[in-house]
Amino acid sequence: MESVKKSRFEMRLSDDDKLLFEKASEIKGYSSLAGFVSAVMRKEAQEIIQEHERILVSNRDKEIFFEAILSSLEPNQKLKEAASRYKELTDQ
């Protein structure tokens, strides 16, 4: 079995936060507060990263779309042929 290297992370909490986190940890069935905090942090981190990547993709898509619309390029031969076929098929 492969061993996983673990790193230490320390954090100070208010008494209220610690009680809140311990209660949630117990409700979810975690055997330790550290396990609960680690799982919650991992889930939140993954969601933050996914959202960030969606925004990057979305912004890149917008740039490509608007660049294509605003460019003054003429349609290439294949596009002209496809438009002709479409017009013939739709009788326009």
Summarize the structure.
The protein is mainly α.
Describe this structure in words.
This protein is mostly helical and 92 residues long. It has one domain. Helix content is 72%, strand content 0%. The model has no long low-confidence stretch (mean pLDDT 90).
Per-chain topology:
Layout: H1 15-28, H2 33-70, H3 77-90
Helix pairs in contact: 1-2
Beta-strand proportion: under 5%
* Count of beta strands: 0
Assembly state:
single chain
Largest sheet, strands/sense/barrel: none
Shape: rod-shaped
Number of helices: 3
Give unreliable regions as ranges. Answer: none
Quickly give the structural class: mainly alpha
SSE order in H/E notation?
Answer: HHH
Question: What is the average per-residue confidence, as pLDDT, rounded to a whole number?
Answer: 90
| Domain tally | 1
Rg for CA atoms: 27 Å
Distance between the termini: 68 Å
Helix content: over 70%
Family: Belongs to the TacA antitoxin family.
Keywords: Toxin-antitoxin system
Pfam families: TacA1
Feature tags:
92 residues; mainly alpha; 3 helices; rod-shaped; Ribbon_hlx_hlx; TacA_1-like; toxin-antitoxin system
